[in-house]
Write a structure and sequence with these properties.
567 residues; alpha+beta; Glutaredoxin; five-stranded mixed β-sheet; globular; NAD; C1-like_sf
């Protein structure tokens, strides 16, 4: 028998019959129990698939690998061997039953462990692909299959480079056909399963809607997109939407698709992941606009649709310049009334629900506080905001805060609002949606500062209060520059680095947006004496305070030379 590992021309070459066998076994198995001798796949490209049923990423990747394997089955030049990481026979059998390839018997744990060590497997799924001679083609087989599927065969660097160049050429010569048509499919589908030829969409403006059917962000956006889609279609515009589903569960996708009026690629179509890579998808939902000539007009118009609706059509660069000018004019004309007064409401509420006319707030500095009781960071920030509010208004009331709730019910709103000394929009008020859209609120807590004229001063007033407390008032750029200049003088007297307490590593004065001080356990921001290796922070005041040094020492940090650990 040849040695397990031969060295040929300086490259590792593996004898598969040696590394996959054991002294008591000269065969592999299929999921029906058949034993297969090693000679049956000699001279084939072989994938060693390290996987386990308990691993979520493995469960998601295995169907993609099955699809590629089945597409290559006719050539009879590709084989896969499953090396299980399952914990018992039952789990192995259930998982292996879904696989059309070979496996090392679960009972041969020694060989499985040896292979894990031999190929340096540190995480799963892991796919090593070897050529006909047993030489490694790639240890990144999972990525190769996800990105290329069976088109990657024979998985050589030359083939992968060829596919990359083809993709580049496809971008240069992009058309609706090159985006949506594959060798086995030249159509998209309706919610009732009818096939619509892609050729029928050519010459139209098409939105490619990347979506996860059950994702709340997509569910929320669907209603707005349906409104725009229906309005454009009823107006006779040559516009279509093709959904690019990223779901894996066909049943749940089908339930959502039934509610939608547009077209879709079939679920689990390999074109979906190709388009994700092609357009470098970075967020959901995303709507890519393809113009009538098949070229990309816009990489994502979700925000434009949310803010402008059908006015954003036909999504051309000229239309977007026009919208920007309109928005700029609206921001320059912004007043408190334009933000907070509509046909239904011209007031906010105070304690016990007392109505306060918006006009009473004219001339004041205003903070719009987007928050909710269920949000832990919101609850953590509330005492800091309350303290700053009270300090700013200590002598006369110059600042008002308006709470804009994302709570889930009236009681939660009332309980949370009872902890606040300021005003609020009523729970469920429609103005919340328009304000969130106008200020592009994509997370809470968010704190927006408005000046006495109602114009926006800062959309990051939370960060300013976290950094400077009441001193940040009135949150203008000029005020923050004043604070930073004063701070620079203080910094000049601080050591650029120091050692403190029992922490073994040197601490460096570092600009940090937000942190928790390991000396006093309180929040900090802007400047910290920081150890990057250990993610260890000290407020400057704690670094210079002997009592805080003692507290730091009492926490018993242990250093092993490379990293410190808190016992």
């Amino acid at each position: 028998m040849e040695s397990e590992l031969e060295i040929a021309n300086g490259d590792a070459t593996y004898d598969l019959s040696s590394i996959l066998s054991s002294p008591n076994r000269d065969y592999l198995v299929r999921n029906n129990g058949d034993q297969v001798k090693f000679d049956s796949f000699k001279g084939k490209v072989t994938g060693l698939y390290f996987s386990a049923s308990w691993c979520g990423p493995c469960q998601r990747f295995t169907p993609k690998l099955v699809e590629a394997y089945n597409e290559l089955a006719q050539s009879n030049n590709f084989e896969i061997v499953f090396i299980s990481g399952d914990e018992d026979d039952e789990s192995f059998d259930a998982y292996f039953s879904k696989m059309p390839w070979l496996a090392i018997p679960f009972s041969d744990s020694d060989t499985r462990e040896k292979l894990n060590e031999l190929f340096g497997v540190s995480g799963i799924p892991h796919l090593v692909i070897l050529n006909e001679d047993g030489k490694i083609l790639t240890s990144e087989g999972v990525q190769v299959i996800v990105e290329n599927g069976s088109d990657g065969y024979p998985f050589t660097s030359e083939q992968i480079e060829k596919l990359r160049k083809q993709e580049e050429e496809a971008k240069m010569n992009q058309s609706l056909k090159s985006l949506l048509v594959t060798e086995s499919r030249d159509y998209v589908i309706t919610s009732d399963g009818k096939k619509v030829p892609v050729a029928e969409l050519e010459g139209k403006t098409v939105g490619l809607y990347f979506v996860l059917a059950s994702y709340y962000g997509c569910l929320d956006f669907n209603s707005k997109l349906i409104e725009v889609y229906n309005s454009l279609r009823e107006g006779g515009e040559s516009f279509e939407i093709v959904m690019v589903p990223l779901d894996e569960d066909e049943e749940s996708f089908g339930e959502e698709f039934e509610k939608l009026p547009w077209l879709s690629l079939p679920i689990n179509d390999k074109c979906c992941l190709k388009l994700v890579r092609y357009f470098e998808l970075g967020a959901l939902p995303t709507v890519v606009i393809i113009g009538p000539n098949g070229k990309t007009l816009q990489s994502n118009v979700v925000e434009a649709i949310e803010e402008h609706g059908m006015k954003a059509y036909p999504f051309t660069p000229e239309k977007f310049i026009e919208l920007e000018e309109i928005e700029k004019a609206k921001r320059e004309a912004q007043t408190l009334e334009s933000l907070l007064v509509n046909q239904d409401s011209d007031y906010v509420i105070g304690e016990a629900g007392v109505k306060v006319p918006v006009s009473d707030l004219n001339g004041k500095d205003i903070l719009l506080y987007f928050s909710a009781h269920w949000c832990r960071p919101c609850r953590a920030f509330l005492p800091t905001l309350t303290k700053a509010y009270e300090e700013i208004n200590k002598n006369n009331k110059r600042l008002e805060v308006i709470f804009i709730s994302s709570d889930r019910d009236q009681k939660a709103f009332e309980d949370y609002f009872s902890e606040m000394p300021w005003l609020a929009l009523p729970f469920g008020d429609k103005r919340k949606e328009s304000l969130s859209s106008w200020f592009k609120v994509d997370g809470i807590p968010t704190l927006v500062a408005l000046g006495p004229t109602g114009k926006t001063v800062s959309t990051d007033a939370r960060g300013l209060i976290m950094a400077h407390g009441a001193e940040a008032y009135p949150f203008t750029r000029e005020r923050i520059e004043e604070i930073e200049k004063a701070f620079e003088k203080i910094l000049a007297g601080w050591a650029p680095n120091l050692k403190c307490g029992a922490h073994g590593h040197e601490l460096f004065l570092t600009k940090r947006k937000n942190f928790v001080c390991d000396g006093c356990s309180e929040d900090g921001s802007v400047w910290s004496y920081y150890c990057e290796k250990c993610d260890f922070d000290l407020h400057p005041k704690c670094a210079f305070d002997e009592e805080s040094k003692d507290k730091t020492a009492a926490q018993e940090w242990v250093c092993d030379g490379d990293k410190c650990y808190k016992e």
